[in-house]
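Example 3.2
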Amino acid sequence: WAVTFLASQPQRLAESSPPPTAAPPQIHIKFWEPLGEDLSAFIRGQMADKRTAYGEKLKQCGGPELSFYYTVNKYDFSKVDLNNDGKLEEFKDPSKPTLEEQELIRRYYSYSGLHAYRTENVYLVPQMSDRSLGEQLDALGRSAIVINFKKVPPEYFNPNPTPSDVLAHENTHLWQMNADNHTEDGKPLPAENIGACGQTTLENVLACTNAKVFTPKQIKNLISYLKPPTPTSGATAAAKMASELLGEVNPGSVGNRINFRFTNRTPPGIYGTMKSLRVRAVHSTPTFVSNFRPTTAALTPATLAPNATGTASFTFDVAPNAELGTECMVELVVTCDTGDEYYYQLWLTTPPPPTSVRHWQLFGQ
């Protein structure tokens, strides 16, 4: 699936790319919670340790202070538990994800185009086949984090509940701060480092010297990962880069429009025609967006054969008191007759004047 934002003035969008030295923007963590589970306390614990590690401690180590917020979506674990054993089958080799892992990341994923570094998909699963507490997953061209949320059974190597720093640890893998074998330059990371092998409580990390929590190389890799990508070469790449950067809106503007295009890329022999397609707005961050309308719309046409494309249109206003230089995110979800859902995000920012109404086209594939 792919998303492209086309704006009326793409040359101005290119100027909104943060320079290399700019602090990374806020990051959206989307937790996927199984149906029938209430993991609110578990999620709050993971986020508290993440904010401590990548806020307070990262800044003390000379890195940027990151800003996070999170949303929670429900998902049906039975649809990815292909062998019905109640566990997610884990990869043996990170480059060879299992069929269950591929099905998980195919069915449940929030996509934000070139802003992939700004959205973090985190799957909470009841058990993992190789007894892991968590993993960083790469499959189908997507990256995500998986966390085992249940108390590990007594026969496992660790009979204790899942510690609250698993998300912070897996972030070192996702953000390229940690080799797969928990080393740096061929040497094991110190035990106090959040990326070290073996999970400990965050109290141990916070008790150590700042230099050991994050190494200078880890911080450099993190800053590099959180920068928007640059086009490879040529006018086509430059145009693509410009089209997928932050959408610009202006305080007090009325009638900003999103034109959404969705293409059915599912393999004909597996899923075929998609029916009853509807698009709805599911999330907006603490936001300057108001009067988003309609909240739900039928895709036109609402039935798509493989490779066919449908469209929907939305408008919204921007609060007059929106502070210049701030950002927010609007998320749209496409639902079809099978119950499958596909998520797309539009990041918005308020640039300096001149003021105008802006239009986008959003392409989903």
